[in-house]
Write a structure and sequence with these properties.
This protein is 41% helix and 14% strand. It is an alpha/beta fold and 186 residues long. The strands form 2 sheets. The chain has a 6-stranded parallel sheet with strand order 5-4-1-6-7-8, sandwiched between helices. Strands 2-3 form a two-stranded antiparallel sheet. Helix 4 links the parallel strand 4 and strand 5.
Length: 186
């Protein structure tokens, strides 16, 4: 006999949910946010990346809720491009340390502004974006300056579910979490 589902197990503070309600785009850094921050190289010099499947599913759920995931990263690699393609992430800027104008370019393309943006970043190059957005977020193992600037810090490290936890927060704030969850509970 199936177990009876009554309510979502996750809870976030009401004031955080209110702050997150206007978010329509979320910017993610890659190394240290979508990955664990480790840099892996094969003997041939190829870059290898490890991504968490929970994070990937969260990004797909964001898209179903009408929230655009975007990536602004200082590195570029074939594994990263492949993973973003698999997830359907259409807005990404690679190989830039000057992330604020890169993110602004994506906002302009989407017709949005910083009051509708969340950012998750773990190190100094992400600080300008964190200072401008409506909801500044960091993984648990982010640099202390990022943690100090964050409105919200995940319980999880980068590449270990931090992105998924932010996705869940945004889904709850948008009122879409329960609807999407119930699709998995026929």
């Amino acid at each position: 006999m199936p177990k009876n589902y009554t309510a979502p197990a996750l809870h976030f503070p009401p004031e955080l949910l209110l702050q997150a309600q206007p978010v329509r785009v979320v910017f993610f850094d890659v190394d240290g946010v979508l990955t664990d921050g480790g840099l892996y190289f094969s003997e041939a010099g190829e870059s290898l990346k490890r991504f968490h499947t929970l994070d990937g599913h969260g990004i797909k759920l964001l898209q179903q809720a009408g929230i655009t995931p975007a990536v602004v990263t200082g590195r570029d690699s074939a594994p990263l491009r492949l993973r973003l393609q698999q997830l359907g992430v259409r807005h990404a800027i690679f190989g830039t340390e000057d992330k604020l104008p890169a993110a602004q370019q994506i906002l302009n393309t989407l017709g949005l502004d910083w009051s509708q943006a969340a950012v998750m970043g773990d190190d100094w190059p992400d600080l300008p974006m964190l200072r401008h957005c409506a909801l500044a977020c960091a993984p648990a193992n982010a640099h202390p300056e990022n943690l100090a600037l964050a409105d919200w810090v995940s319980d999880f490290a980068g590449g270990q579910g931090a992105v998924r936890q932010l996705c869940d927060l945004l889904l709850m704030a948008s009122g879409q979490y329960r609807r999407l969850l119930e699709q998995y509970l026929p």
